[in-house]
Write a structure and sequence with these properties.
- The structure is a homodimer.
- Chain A is of the alpha/beta class.
- Helices cover about 40% and strands about 25% of the residues of chain A.
- The first copy, chain A, folds into 3 domains: about 10-80 and about 110-185 and about 285-350, FAD/NAD(P)-binding domain; about 190-285; about 355-430, no CATH class.
- Chain A has a 7-stranded mixed beta sheet.
- In chain A, β1 (about 10-15), α1 and β2 form a beta-alpha-beta unit.
- In chain A, α11 (about 315-335) runs antiparallel to α12.
- Chain A is globular and about 65 Å long.
- Chain A starts with 9 loop residues before the first strand and ends in a 7-residue tail after the last helix.
- Chains A, B: Its cofactor is FAD.
- Chains A, B: This is Kynurenine 3-monooxygenase.
Chain lengths: ~450, ~450
């Protein structure tokens, strides 16, 4: 018998993506009766269209969450260690900038494979079940009742003790929380879009050095490439939408790449590049913040549903995984008492998730795409933090801001004394956060 | 025949409140076929429950919009001029601080009466019709089709050339815009709530000087009182929710008022105060920003639906009315071409509406409820503007911020040289904006 009484509590996890499936494992391990509702079909059996996900970089926080479930070794064995960034200059010159000490690295991970493994891990719990092809229609948060639509197209009501929204940046669960009084929310699209391209293997091996995160920084745009197990690289081009729109023909695309990424063109292949560029339009990137993350003891948000962030800090999945771990630790501490753990999760976690969101946006604005001098960036960051205290997100960000501010005050100026390369400041921040990050 | 061809274009205005009904007049005057959908019953015939609206202060911008429709004189004649603030100190001492020159004043207006007059004005246009008791269910923004539910409880689809969301801070129209790509949005609740109370007439006349906006500034909370035509005052108490919650009994309430507003208690009457305080709970205040305000040539937002602001700048209704006037001026300039006027309205108006939102929030945070020294407030404001440029609302606020920044740089420090009373800085800002404001 579990600690809360005779009937196992029932939990609905909305979304069977990375955070949803990981969370389902944590909850199942605590003897909840867990139902996961995923709108898509089972990715382990369905033939997928070309994905639209930015490559994943698994780092310390994400690994700690996997470790708590005994999944770390399995997942890590399928990743490719990236021990440094490899900066590609215009001239084709390459220079490596390590992430940290020799033993520190981040892992390039396939989103699809990771998701498959996590779904399989969920299904190993006899008290957990995944309902694929089930879409959430409505949520009654007061009652804990959800209405889902399965393949039979008959809306079905089910009542749960807890509803966990892990349904991503465009969360349906969150849209019901938004209707509750005093729920703060913001969504912001950045002017950049992203597009994924491929560098195929060359002579059966990686076409570039595999154990690096390759970066072509180009002021207002940039390209990165992460290695895959099949010896390809997935390239992601980040560029303002208005610049994407200028590239209308194959000729435009090839001219653009020859001009800005001359060393990448022969690796991608002109023909493949000119074709792949038009397979999918550039995708938008959204930054979402909200507060609180919960409603009474009935409903909570985790992962992108709670805090979708722009990808320039390499922490999206890692922050989502850490959400699950933090909640699990609270459940341990407070003996699975949902009426304590949900408000405590909001109180404790929102400052951190808002901070990682601010850091990601800050990095996007000040570091990645601007040429602002770094000491100015630090000064601006401090002021930004001080000021955002006052204006936006009055509730919740205070602690986040405070910590980030103290953190920067204590470490950044010191590090700035021996600034050498363009990523050093970034590296110092990464050290301060005690986690490597991907860009 | 109108300028765009033979068939008059059809417009649905969602919401028959202040901005909706004013906008319907503007559009009807341009020979659109206008249908206004209002969820409530006709306030001119229905017996209303006690209102939940903060008192209105009509100022220059609002009057200009009414003037363009020939309604200014009628509305102004029903208002009560307030030529100065009357500050009530703890000791009961009163000091007047004029809004500007002797000829400058703002008007205390009854929201209900104004709304009634505007609805009657709409119905004077033969090409306009108001559907009361009609609730918007869904919007197909691509097609211009709305589904409304009238008293017959049968959902009805109607297709329009243009859908104008004037449905307030919790806009349903906006919720459909939010689902469109790259729509930026934020909603933020402030920690203060508000509650309306009454000072009845005394011996058949106003119990205090009528031509003032009375203010009891009390650091973290404050009360204001605006005069009504029936010789009552409507008082509004602004206070953190957590402080409201401390007042649980009539005794608590009377003790609190005797302590903080000793001169107001005999005017309100102990018995009435102790009763009225518990009639309605304290109401929340939300600040909403979004961008863009339009979708293609099909849909747009105006008033609180586009930019609900906190009331501490006295500009909510005035900004909404000016939206209508600005759009009308664009329609005049661009010959009623919706495909030009809608994007132009977003481009032109968003910076101003975001600026008034920032000024309102800024005033709430820095001036109204804090004891920060004013020159610090100015410095912070500048930094805030500079920094928010970078982080939040990348699109659109740039111009707003720039103007506010230039404005403050050009006027505030100079004015600070002869700072005398607590509202002078605020007065200087008001002069800079060339409009009086209410607090």
């Amino acid at each position: 018998m579990d600690s809360w009484g005779t009937r196992p509590k029932r939990v609905a996890v909305i979304g069977g993506g990375l955070v949803g499936s990981l969370n389902a494992c944590f909850l199942a391990k605590r003897n909840f009766q867990v139902d996961v509702y995923e709108a898509r079909e089972d990715i382990r059996v369905a033939q997928l269209a070309r994905g639209r996900s930015i490559n994943l970089a698994l780092s310390h926080r994400g690994r700690q969450a996997l470790k708590a479930l005994g999944l770390e070794d399995q997942i890590v064995s399928q990743g490719i260690p990236m021990r440094a960034r490899m900066i590609h200059s215009f001239s084709g010159k390459k220079s490596a900038i390590p992430y940290g000490t020799k033993s520190q690295y981040i892992l390039s991970i396939s989103r699809t494979n990771l998701n498959k493994d996590l779904l399989t891990a969920v299904e190993r719990y006899p008290n957990a079940k995944v309902y694929f092809g089930h879409r959430l229609l409505t949520c009654n948060l007061e009652e804990g009742t959800i209405t889902v639509l399965g393949s039979d197209k008959v809306p079905t009501d089910v009542t749960y003790d807890l509803i966990v929204g892990c349904d991503g940046a465009y969360s349906t669960v969150r849209s019901f929380l938004m209707k509750k009084p005093r729920f703060d929310y913001s969504q912001q699209y950045i002017p950049h879009g992203y597009m994924e391209l491929t560098i195929p293997p060359r002579d059966g091996d990686f076409a570039m050095e595999p154990n690096y995160l390759h970066i072509w920084p180009r002021n207002t745009f940039m390209m990165i490439a992460l290695p895959n197990k099949n010896k390809t690289f997935t390239c992601t081009l980040f560029m303002p939408f208005e610049d994407f729109e200028k590239l209308q023909t194959s000729r435009d695309v090839l001219d653009f790449f020859h001009k800005h990424f001359p060393d990448a063109v022969p690796l991608m292949g002109e023909q493949a590049l000119a074709r792949d560029f038009f397979l999918l339009p550039a995708q938008a990137m959204i930054s979402v913040k909200c507060s609180p993350f919960h409603f009474k003891s009935r409903c909570m948000l985790m992962g992108d549903a709670a805090h979708a962030i722009v990808p320039f800090f390499g922490q999206g999945m890692n922050a989502g995984f850490e959400d699950c771990l933090v909640f699990d630790e609270l459940m341990e501490k407070f003996n699975n008492d949902l009426s304590v753990c949900l408000p405590e999760f909001s109180r404790f976690r929102i400052p951190d998730d808002h901070a990682v969101s601010d850091l990601s946006m800050y990095n996007y604005v000040e570091v990645t795409f601007s040429r602002i001098r770094y000491h100015e960036a630090v000064l601006r960051w401090r002021w930004q933090k001080k000021v955002i205290n006052k204006g936006f997100f009055l509730f919740g960000t205070l602690v986040a801001i405070g910590s980030a501010y103290l953190l920067l005050r204590s470490t950044a100026p010191r590090r700035l004394d021996y600034l050498r390369g363009p990523w050093d400041w970034v590296t110092s921040l990464q050290h301060s956060l005690k986690t490597p990050w991907s860009l």
